[in-house]
Design a protein that fits this description.
- The chain is built from 25 helices and eleven strands.
- It has 682 residues and is an alpha+beta fold.
- It has a four-stranded mixed β-sheet with strand order 2-3-5-4. It has a three-stranded mixed β-sheet with strand order 6-8-7, covered by helices on one side. Strands 1-11 form a two-stranded antiparallel ribbon.
- A hairpin with a 2-residue loop joins strand 9 and strand 10.
- The two termini are 38 Å apart.
């Protein structure tokens, strides 16, 4: 529950990564062996020329149904589950009486508060009762705006989303920004599209149920639920689509504070900013001005009582997962089961671990790194990144479709590319955070407020380039366009993404593609609009930009033709950036593998009957092995900028001649894609 950069601009690259650990370390024992690339995962009864994904991972798919406490199950989740077990050991040891360090005691106290269900159940709604009373006592819209500021300080979601991030046109300094938001359903489409009518009805019932639980009588709860849904539908109608949000220039609108406040006489922005400690701020960045115009209009048109009901609901909604069992289970029944198809919750300790990752993640991460990230891992990862960088740089310097002028600027940007591996050099200390073992919700709120105040205090100041936006224990990686950097947390460097026991082909097809993916994000449909300094600045000639769009258009068409469920296709424009990165990462990693094999010809041999080229593509497809619950897949199609994993497992391949050569795929085979339809960008 922290003020943090939202999806503008998209900071994180692909969900692709895990942990690089040498044999013999703790992170390489036991279950890790089951995460590796394996021919046992393949289904050799399937012809690779017909369905390469099932050929590569069909047996795994048959043998690994989605567990009851998950909405999706994949190689990524397998590793993530194993990593949570490592985190659990840290939390339980930190919570023990033997823990002596300040960091460990902080982590342990918060974990104990999360696990004290007897105390949490006894408190009921008391942890948020004061908030509900403040809402009830509101007498004016000015008071409502001040309360919004207070709620946002503790990261309760309501009305819109504030944040602090580097200014996209002055990336050396932090700026305050506001973004559309305030919805209780996953996306605007859930309010506006005919296909989500049942979800809207379920949401209205859920809102009424939670309001009754918090003390409203049935009639009042149902009436309020209807007004809340109507208000949110109005906000949804004013919201941009997720595709529109990908237009970085259109979603950057800088205003002097005085001018912005003057646009909305009914909106008490001055009071809101003062509540956040920003009374002297001179400018802000507005993502979607028309959304805020509509929001201000709704505030003026709707009775104050409707907005009070809306705020009451969003406080309850935000807090419910951390309250007593009845509230927690009701929240999960809607958000977990109804919207994602997940039959049961994850175990209590795992839910607590997720909260600690959000609240004091770097404190947990510092301990994680000590136990599970040896220095040799960082050294090897640097070597691999350099390998991939060399390939991309050579390719960029030789692109035949780009003018010399644009190419020179692209190379200048690449020269400024930086990387982070494993963990921050200096971890956050959470100095001043008061953690009480009998106040779980209070602990979450105090941690959120501490982080929010830290970020708000930086508005207008120089950017800290050493800061990380993921914790070391996060199984992922990202590209940050505002700092022109790629970042790989420690937890991404393990099988199935990286395995020192595997041959080069398997590793280049996994972690190599991940590295290439993140590098390519610097030149995808969004990343290409940022210059070497991380500023939103056009450095392309018009002709080159048109050529890029034409080439990218082939990927829009390709992925837009993939049908995830009957009648439900992938959104090729929403997923374009990730698809460009997947294609670039795959192509670059394949060439890097060939260079590595040329340096050491003895490694060019068949393993398990497959050539290095074949194992490269098999490794990549196995990386994306997956099973879905239908509701979750449907949700992801609407909200996720990544294509579903089963399409990432073959989408890049069919654009590369090397894939066809490796498996002797020819015109007429199902996996064949006509040459003129294949995309080639980087």
């Amino acid at each position: 529950m922290r003020l943090k950069p939202k999806s503008w601009p998209s900071m994180f690259g692909g969900v692709l990564l895990l942990c690089l650990v040498p044999p013999g370390t703790a992170a390489e024992s036991g279950p890790a062996k089951n995460l590796r690339f394996s021919v046992a995962h393949m289904d050799r009864s399937v012809d690779p020329k017909t369905d390469f994904f099932k050929f590569a991972a069909g047996t795994w798919i048959k043998q690994n149904p989605v567990p009851g406490d998950k909405s999706r199950w994949s190689g990524f989740e397998e590793l993530q589950e194993r990593n949570w077990e490592l985190v659990r050991e840290i939390l339980e040891l930190s919570a023990s009486a033997s823990e002596k360090s300040r960091r460990g005691k902080l982590v342990g106290a918060l974990y104990r508060s999360a696990m004290d269900t007897q105390r949490i159940d006894a408190l009921g709604f008391r942890p948020i009762q004061a908030d509900l009373q403040r809402i009830e006592h509101l007498r004016s819209h000015a008071q409502l705006w001040r309360l919004l500021g207070r709620l946002h300080l503790e990261n309760w979601n309501a009305a819109f989303s504030p944040g602090v991030s580097p200014d996209a046109k002055k990336s050396t300094h932090y700026a305050f920004r506001i973004w559309q938001g305030g919805l209780g359903l996953p996306d605007r489409d859930y309010y506006l599209a005919e296909g989500f009518a049942s979800q809207r009805e379920g949401y209205e019932r859920h809102v009424a149920r939670m309001l009754r639980m918090a003390g409203d009588n049935s009639g009042a709860a149902e009436a309020k639920a209807k007004s809340i849904l109507a208000l949110e539908a109005a906000l949804a109608k004013a919201s941009k689509t997720r595709v529109e949000l990908r237009d970085t220039e259109a979603n950057y609108n800088k205003f002097p504070v005085r001018e912005w406040g003057g646009r909305f006489p009914s909106a008490a922005w001055k009071d809101y900013f003062a509540e956040l400690g920003l009374a002297r701020m001179d400018s802000l960045i507005v993502g979607q001005p028309k959304f805020f115009e509509a929001m201000a209009s709704e505030m003026g048109a709707r009775p104050l009582e409707e907005w009070k009901s809306y705020l009451r609901w969003h406080v309850i909604r935000s807090a419910a997962p951390y309250l007593h069992r009845e509230a927690e289970e009701a929240s999960f029944e809607f958000y977990g089961t109804a919207l994602r198809g997940q039959p049961r919750q994850e175990p209590r300790w795992q839910r607590a671990a997720r909260v600690l990752d959000q609240s004091v993640g770097e404190a947990v991460g510092a301990i994680y790194v000590e136990k599970h990230f040896p220095p040799a891992a960082r050294v090897r990862m640097k070597e691999l990144i350099q390998d991939l960088r060399a390939v991309f740089q050579d390719r960029l310097g030789k692109l035949d479709w780009m003018s010399a002028e644009t190419r020179a600027r692209g190379l200048a940007k690449f020269d400024r590319f930086t990387q982070k591996i494993g963990h921050p050099e200096k971890f956050k200390t959470y100095e001043g955070l008061r953690v009480k073992t009998d106040d779980y919700v209070g602990n979450i709120r105090r941690a959120a407020a501490l982080e929010s105040k830290r970020q708000l205090g930086r508005v207008g100041k120089a950017v800290d380039r050493s800061e990380w936006h993921m914790t070391p224990q996060t199984v992922n990686a990202y590209f940050n366009p505002l700092q022109n950097e790629i970042v790989f947390p420690a937890a991404i460097l393990q099988p199935p993404f990286f395995d020192l026991a595997a041959d080069d082909a398997v590793n280049y097809g996994a972690i190599g593609v991940v590295i290439g993916h993140e590098i390519t994000h610097g030149y995808d449909d969004q990343g290409r609009k940022f210059d070497a300094d991380g500023n939103l600045k056009d450095w392309w000639t018009q002709d080159d930009a048109r050529e890029f769009e034409a080439r990218a258009g082939k990927l829009v068409k390709q992925y837009g033709d993939y049908e995830a469920l009957p009648g439900l296709k992938v959104n090729g424009r929403l997923t374009l950036g990730e698809n460009i990165a997947d294609l670039g990462g795959t192509s670059i990693a394949f060439e890097a593998m060939q260079r590595a094999l040329a340096r050491d010809p003895a490694k060019r041999k068949r393993v398990d009957g497959f050539t290095p080229e074949q194992r490269f593509f098999l490794s990549l497809s196995q990386l994306w092995r997956v099973n879905w619950r239908e509701a979750e897949l449907r949700r992801r199609i609407v909200v996720d900028p990544h294509s579903p994993a089963q399409f990432r497992a073959v989408g890049p391949h069919v654009n590369l001649q090397e894939f066809y050569d490796a498996f002797q795929i020819k015109e007429g085979d199902t996996m064949w894609r006509p040459v003129e339809s294949r995309a080639k960008i980087w």
